[in-house]
Write a structure and sequence with these properties.
By secondary structure, the protein is of the alpha/beta class. It is built from 14 helices and 22 strands. It has a seven-stranded mixed beta sheet with strand order 14-15-16-13-12-18-19, sandwiched between helices. It has a six-stranded mixed beta sheet with strand order 9-8-7-10-11-21, with helices on both faces. Strand 18, helix 13 and strand 19 form a beta-alpha-beta unit. Helix 2 packs across helix 6 and helix 7 packs parallel to helix 8.
Length: about 475
């Protein structure tokens, strides 16, 4: 698909409409640094129009049988599979993810649709005869109009992960994509129409957080909002939600995820796994292991094993299958990562690889390794969201647990060891929502809850918990 040929208007009530404000914004190709196309911008008026469409569509959609809703979701999965190469090329142009990696993301999104629709068959309430003379039971009923705000790093996974659980359970939705990568969301809106979703059930807006995002967060007819993005923006979403109608809020805001390598670990496998975690999408992934803690006895051996695996990249045009390492999404992200690298050097961290621009054109950054990083350095605290890793030494289990938890984030943690008891102690001690043992974040099961502790978020998506979060629960008492 030529990105210049995609529909760039707002998708509201089954129609493509220009934004009420009359403004557009450019979508750029981070490989060429050139504009691809102008995209219509949504403001509060468009948000309200989309919410009214979703509100009007809700009663009929809610009253459809679960089987009919599931059928439409599975049809959408078929269409995504049909057009997966077009979608991958589109995202390579707009966001810069290599198609080899994005095809895997598309497969994951399809698997997520199938899993959510499978779970939907089994949604039910509870019953009780514990009160003499009464039957008590619960009902699970959809909220109504929900909203989603998705990030730019893996749009198809985020779009499907928020839209499908929402609509299969009988809700309707207004989704805002990121202004950095809006094109995939518009393509998916077109496929939803082809899949047979009625007008108003799925509405897709392109725009900015301070306008459309704020309008969604404070809209009085939206009953739930799901957000993935920065901690700063998440706090604003939560504040607006609380100040308006106390809508339900689910947020996921990233992490500073540690990987712990004990001296009994398989260092070859650990190095391979953690390197893959950080290189994926050029480090632009919330669960990447950007901090590595290695037990002192094997520190040098691990670094020597890890370094060539981390630096083994094929930099180039992400639309080519031979490329496995693409650019950062835009100049803002590119400049911020280089600034954090320079800051780490000023803080006294030892740079042993990378740290510079990788190509003269395009927002490419070399895979970057720091060692001997002072504990107070910002690079150990801040989510870089790029191909940058800090490798530290530790001696004892208690010491490394304290180091790992010394952050406001709590999304993901990893431990490599052959000692099962030790592994379980670390699993319990990590202050994080997701843990991997002897593997890293390259493994992402869709049947388990996804979400974080502390400032990595609140609420869960995926799995049964994620699906059930799109229902209100009603307790009913019936006198016999």
């Amino acid at each position: 698909m030529n990105p210049g040929n995609i529909e760039t208007r707002l998708h509201i009530n089954g129609e493509w409409l220009p934004g009420k404000c009359g403004r557009t914004f450019p979508a750029f190709n981070p490989t060429t640094e050139e504009k691809i196309v102008d995209v219509h911008e949504a403001d509060w008026q468009d948000v309200d129009l989309a919410v009214q469409a979703a509100e009007a569509a809700f009663p009929a959609w809610r009253d459809l049988s679960m089987f009919e809703r599931i059928s439409k979701c599975l049809k959408l999965a078929e269409l995504i599979e049909r057009d997966k190469h077009e979608i991958a090329q589109l995202e390579a142009s707009n966001m810069g993810m290599p198609i080899s990696a994005y095809l895997a993301c598309i497969s994951g999104a399809i698997d997520g649709i199938k899993h959510a629709t499978g779970l939907a068959h089994d949604i039910h309430g509870e019953t009780s005869l514990n009160t003499p003379g009464f039957v008590t039971f619960t009902l699970r009923q959809p909220f109504g109009v929900c909203a989603a705000i998705i990030p730019w790093n893996v749009p198809i996974v985020m779009w499907c992960g928020k839209v499908i659980p929402c609509v299969v359970t009988g809700n309707t939705i207004v989704l805002k994509s990121s202004e950095k990568a809006p094109l995939t969301s518009l393509k998916l809106a077109a496929l939803a129409v082809e899949a047979g979703f009625p007008p108003g059930v799925i509405n897709v807006l392109s725009g900015f957080g301070h306008t459309a995002g704020q309008a969604l967060s404070r809209h009085m007819q939206i009953r739930k909002i799901s957000f993935t993005g920065s901690t700063r923006a998440a706090k604003m979403v939560m504040e607006e939600a609380a100040k308006s109608n106390m809508k339900r809020v689910c947020v996921e805001t990233g992490g500073k995820n540690p990987a712990v390598i004990f001296d009994d670990a398989d260092l070859e496998k650990a190095a391979e796994s953690v390197a893959a975690s950080i290189k994926f999408n050029s480090g632009q992934i919330c669960v990447s292991n950007s901090r590595i803690y290695v037990q002192r006895a094997v520190f040098s051996e691990f670094v020597d094993t890890f370094k060539p695996k981390f630096l083994d990249i094929a930099v180039g045009d992400p639309s080519l299958e031979s490329t496995n390492f693409g650019p950062q999404v835009d100049k803002t992200q590119f400049d911020n990562i280089l600034k954090l690298i320079d800051e780490a050097k000023d803080d006294g961290a030892s740079l042993i690889s990378g740290g510079c621009r990788a190509k003269d054109k395009g927002f490419y950054i070399q895979p970057t390794i720091f060692v001997q990083v002072p504990k107070s350095a910002n690079i150990l605290k801040t989510e870089v969201f790029g191909p940058v890793v800090a490798i530290q030494q530790f001696d004892t289990e208690d010491e490394v647990i304290a180091e790992c938890n010394d952050t406001q984030y709590g999304l993901h943690g990893t431990v490599f060891t052959r000692d099962v008891s030790r592994a379980f102690r670390l699993v319990k001690a990590f202050e994080a929502g997701m843990i991997t043992v002897n593997c890293s974040s390259e493994v992402g099961p869709y049947d388990m809850p996804f979400g974080g502790w502390k400032e990595s978020g609140t609420g869960r998506e995926n799995g049964r918990m994620g699906l059930e979060s799109y229902f209100e629960v009603k307790s009913v008492t019936l006198k016999l």
